[in-house]
Amino acid sequence: MIADRIRQARLAAGLTLSALGEQVGVSHTAIQKYEKGLLTPSSTQLLKLARACGIRTEYFFRTHTVELLQPEFRKLSTFGKTAQDALKIKVVELVEKRVELLGAFPELPFPAFAPPANLPEHITSLDEIDAFSDSVRNAWQLGLNPIADLTDTLEGLGLLVIVVDEENPGFSGLTAKARTEDGREYPVVAVSKRWPGDRQRFTLAHELAHLLLEGRLADGINEEKACDRFAGAFLAPRVAVLQLLGAQRHALEWQELYVLKHEFGLSMTGWLQRAKQCGVITETTHLSMFKRFSAKGWRKTEPGQPLPQEHPRLFDQLVYRALAEQYISEGKAAELLGIPMMRFHKERQLESSDAVAHQ
Question: What ranges in the chain are assigned the alpha helix state H?
Answer without folding.
Answer: 2-13, 17-24, 28-36, 43-53, 81-103, 129-139, 150-156, 197-213, 223-235, 238-245, 254-264, 268-277, 283-295, 314-324, 330-337, 341-348
